[in-house]
Amino acid sequence: MEIYKDKKLNSLIGKAVEVVLFDDKIIKGILGYTAEFSEKYKYRKPGYYTCGDYDFKKSHVKKIRGL
């Protein structure tokens, strides 16, 4: 399993993507940063992303592709 680098994930922020997580769960939606950390603590915790109704760590991404 490849661990995606911040540069790859960050290049897809705001774009429609299909994410396959380590447990083979497939998520489709707009990739963004996890809002909880930036709203609650006034900063973005590195390595945490959101897509659709899911929040996940970059280490949980098995595959990602733009739609």
Characteristics:
5-stranded antiparallel beta sheet; alpha+beta
Task: Give your account of this protein's structure.
It is built from two helices and five strands; from the N terminus they run αββαβββ. By secondary structure, the protein is α+β, with helices and mostly antiparallel strands. It has one domain: SH3 type barrels, CATH 2.30.30.100. A five-stranded antiparallel beta sheet has the order 4-3-2-1-5, with no helix packed on it. Strand 1 and strand 2 form a beta hairpin. The radius of gyration is 11 Å and the shape is globular. It starts with 5 loop residues before the first helix and ends with a strand.
The value of Rg in angstroms is 11 Å
How do the SSEs run, as a string of H and E? HEEHEEE
Summed over residues and divided by their number, the pLDDT gives a mean of 80
User: What is the share of helical residues?
Assistant: 10-25%
Sheet having the most strands: 5 strands, antiparallel
N-to-C terminal Cα separation, in Å?
21 Å
* Inertia-based shape: globular
